[in-house]
């Protein structure tokens, strides 16, 4: 999940996050769907009628990413590693960019 959040934000908070294997992500999403089914008694047929919006959205998102990770082309296009801001933008580069903008 940290990897997907990092993909959306474009960076990682604490440390670099490598791309997980397809098998690991499938296991994670299957496990999460099984937990939602067991705890909240939700399934594919009753998902839209479920009263709790948060549980309903978690179920739909897990199914969506389970489908997305099953497509090899989509997986191949993901970055191999999500970098932290310090690694992505070293402090010297930020300082140089700030100086260049001040000179203009």
Could you characterize the architecture of this molecule?
The chain is built from six helices and two strands. The mean pLDDT is 84. The radius of gyration is 19 Å and the shape is elongated. It is mainly alpha-helical and 104 residues long.
Short description:
By secondary structure, this protein is mainly alpha-helical. The protein has 6 helices and 2 strands. It has helices at residues 2-9, 22-40, 53-69, 72-76, 85-88, 91-103; strands spanning 17-18, 81-82.
Salient structural properties:
104 residues; mainly alpha; two-stranded antiparallel sheet; 6 helices; 2 strands; 63% helix; 4% strand
Number of helices: 6
Helix content: 55-70%
Tally of strands: 2
Please tell me what the overall shape is.
elongated
SSE pattern, N- to C-terminal: HEHHHEHH
Q: What composes the largest sheet?
A: 2 strands, antiparallel
Low-confidence stretches: none
Strand order of the largest sheet: 1-2
**End-to-end distance:** 42 Å
Structural class: mainly alpha
Instruction: Please report which band the strand proportion falls in: under 5%, 5-15%, 15-25%, 25-35%, 35-45% or over 45%.
Output: under 5%
Computed over alpha carbons, the radius of gyration is 19 Å
Mean pLDDT: 84
Produce the secondary structure layout.
Blueprint: H1 2-9, E1 17-18, H2 22-40, H3 53-69, H4 72-76, E2 81-82, H5 85-88, H6 91-103
Helix pairs in contact: 2-3
């Amino acid at each position: 999940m940290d990897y997907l959040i990092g993909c959306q934000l474009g960076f990682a908070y604490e440390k670099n996050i490598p791309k997980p294997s397809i098998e690991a992500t499938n296991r994670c999403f299957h496990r999460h769907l099984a937990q939602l089914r067991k705890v909240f008694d939700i399934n594919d047929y009753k998902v839209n009628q479920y009263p709790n919006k948060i549980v309903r959205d978690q179920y739909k998102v897990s199914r969506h990413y389970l489908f997305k990770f099953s497509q090899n082309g989509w997986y191949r296009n993901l970055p191999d590693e999500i970098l932290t801001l310090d690694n992505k933008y070293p402090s010297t580069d930020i300082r140089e960019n700030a100086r260049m903008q001040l000179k203009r």
